[in-house]
Design a protein that fits this description.
Layout (H helix, E strand, L loop, with lengths): L5 H25 L16 H21 L3 H19 L5 H20 L6 H4 L3
Helix pairs in contact: 1-2, 1-4, 2-3, 3-4
Length: 127
Amino acid sequence: MKTNYNDLALLIHRVGFSALMLINHGIPKLDKLNGPIEFADPLGIGATASLILCLVGEVLAPVLIIFGIKTKFAAIPAAITMAVAAFIVHGSDPLARKEMALLYLIAFVVIFLAGPGKFSVDGRKGR
């Protein structure tokens, strides 16, 4: 087989991880904007600022990554959000508790390093 499926693999990786992040973690956090904001403050910047940064990493960045818009740039806040979740929020927890955050962190680092592939808005610009 001489067919190269790298761009298809990047599409599946990019859309799969970003959609899971968005649906399971990002969208549910949007409800926290209704009423008084009660959210963890792991960086000591306030609950509101922490929630906004988390929404950037779990809602805005995944949407951009899904479509492949400024993909490498968008992968940075997503990865940072997962690094904070893994190493600060769950820093003293056992590995099993921080595993999901680490898996997402690895996935977004791979997206940053590999780029979006040709099946993306970013990839179409090169044509």
